[in-house]
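Same chain as my last thread, 250 residues:
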Amino acid sequence: MTIHEDQTLPRHVAIIMDGNNRFAKKNQMQKGDGHRSGKNVLDPIVEHCRKVGIKALTVYAFSSENWNRPQYEVDLLMKLLEDTIHEQIPRMVKFEISLQFIGDRSRLSPKLRELMLHAEQLTANFSQMTLVIAVSYGGMWDLTQAARNLAQMVKDQRLEVDDIDEKTFGQHVSLSHLPPVDLLIRTGGDYRISNFLLWQAAYAEFYFTQTLWPEFTIKELDHAFDVFVGRERRFGKTSEQIQQEKIENE
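reply #2:
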């Protein structure tokens, strides 16, 4: 993809990295090898996003529902996540990328929670890009936590019920410090968002691909960017309004 000055790339990209197990089955690999293959795909994707100026990349590593998978797979995914964090820390420092995590940490091991916190603190001041890894995360959990926090504030008389609006609510969901998701990519051929960033992706453009995550390449990522650039984002307005605004802003 040739990036021109008049092209508006997404500020925030989210990826549902799906298809690891099917990749392993397709290639007659051992159980778990698909996840290991998928782990290696993330590095070049992160570097390319930083190179082209994406401000935030959020990836779905382990959902709230993934706890229901076979125990051996859950254990493997937790081990791979730990390995990934160890590997990412020096890369985040090298490329000045802030590494952050979202999700319910209460179900994670103390060792993993400590490692995540260490990575966040070590990279907190980097501003080239933000990489967010969603672990034990679900959009409904996220909204529930926001509602609970606001309810507690009302109970403590720190907030009036009438003051709760979309802006206030949005300040209490995950990633409130980042731009809304502009482009949501799902690999693996399924056409759903699987409880991922329900609030943050309210006006995201979706890009679904049959490509399994371990086979996802920078070339296809660039194609997704091309598709995004070619779409008209109206946010509830008409095409005529959007065109008129473009003329007025020239």
